[in-house]
Structure formats: C-alpha cells, structure tokens
Design brief:
Blueprint: H1 8-19, H2 23-40, H3 47-63
Helix pairs in contact: 1-2, 1-3, 2-3
Length: 64
C-alpha cells in the first residue's frame, strides 16, 4: 500500500521558511527535482521525502 503523500505546497513553504528562500524558487527546484527523480524511479512511495531532502541540499550548496 502506498504511503500518503504530504501536500507539496506545505513542503515548499516549510523549505522556503527553513532556508529563507522565496517559495517560488523552492517550488521550481522541487518540480525540477521531482521530474528528474520520477524519470528513473521504479518505486514512488517515498519520492516526496527524497525530493525534499535533495531540494534542501541544493539550496544549502547554492549558499556556499
């Protein structure tokens, strides 16, 4: 059975607040990352968790 997926808007808002980044920027990075991950994915159950983690990493790296 698939895991319930969190609301993408809530995830984007949380990441934006955590990283002090505009929500529009986070949303774009999230959408791009999700598309990249889905292209090669066989299992989608934890996709949103993995995408959120990657978005946070991307934003942290861009600050350095």
């Amino acid at each position: 059975m698939a895991q319930p997926q969190p609301n993408v808007d809530e995830v984007v808002k949380a990441i934006a607040a955590e990283t002090n980044t505009p929500a529009e920027t986070v949303s774009k990075i999230y959408a791009d990352t999700l598309a990249d991950y889905k292209a090669d994915a066989r299992i989608l159950d934890y996709m949103s968790v993995l995408v959120a983690k990657k978005v946070r990493e991307t934003l942290r790296q861009s600050r350095h």
